[in-house]
Amino acid sequence: MSHDHGWKQVGQVKLQDGFSFHPKLSEWLLELTTLKPEMDVTVFEASCGEVNCPVEEVKLTWIIAGAEDKLRLGRGKEKLLKQDVYLAWKKKMMS
Ligand SMILES: [Zn+2]
């Protein structure tokens, strides 16, 4: 059953300060992407309000050179793996 998902903002941090919901995510972003420690990154989660919905997706956004850029990760924010960041960034760079 398909239905629409909206993005809900769940936080914003300076990358060097780390994410409260994940001990390694900021470290991986600094290692695998071109994001800089002083950048503010905003975190969004896909949500539709349905308790049993299996959809879990995260979107990170930041401002670079005056424009918004983003990275989408197909897993819940607490469960993200290093390979999710690696593959999402690789895909983004190829598109
Ligand atoms: Zn849903």
UniProtKB/TrEMBL annotation:
Name the UniProt record assigns to this protein: Uncharacterized protein
